[in-house]
Automatic annotation (TrEMBL):
Stored InterPro entries: START-like_dom_sf
Gene source species: Saccharothrix coeruleofusca
Name of the protein described by the UniProt record: Polyketide cyclase/dehydrase/lipid transport protein
Length: 123
């Protein structure tokens, strides 16, 4: 991404901005101190996730509170010349096609890059 790691990580960790880059059919229902409620449009379910930011490691982690959901993490590393690279991983549930997961993660990364560019005028 065309921004330093701190900007990318802070954008990803700002739960008020998550809706702008989460891929459909996910949507933010609400957030609290260290938690975010994410809705899944196809079946109307909502899952609460505990979110933890490790700024020193440039890492954002999330874990489902009720063990029903996809745990994962986002890690940002400096890429040189004002750029960074983002790694996004999730532990998808059983019966989910790997290609569908990969496509959703790609949409999330494109959405995050667009949110960073739009809000910080990075080119």
């Amino acid at each position: 991404m065309a921004a330093v790691a701190d900007i990318v990580l802070n954008t990803a960790a700002d739960l008020t901005r998550a809706q702008a880059w989460l891929p459909a059919p996910l949507h933010v229902v609400g957030s609290g101190d260290g938690t975010v409620d994410v809705g899944w449009t196809p079946d109307g379910s909502t899952h609460r996730y505990q979110v933890r930011l490790d700024a020193d490691e440039h890492r954002l982690e999330w874990r489902p509170v009720d063990h029903d959901g996809w745990p994962g993490h986002l890690r940002v590393v400096e890429g040189g010349a004002g750029a960074s690279e983002v790694e996004l991983q999730v532990e998808a549930g059983a019966g989910v096609a790997e290609d569908d997961v990969r496509a959703a993660l790609d949409r999330a990364l494109r959405g995050l890059a667009a949110e960073v560019e739009q809000n910080f005028n990075v080119s």
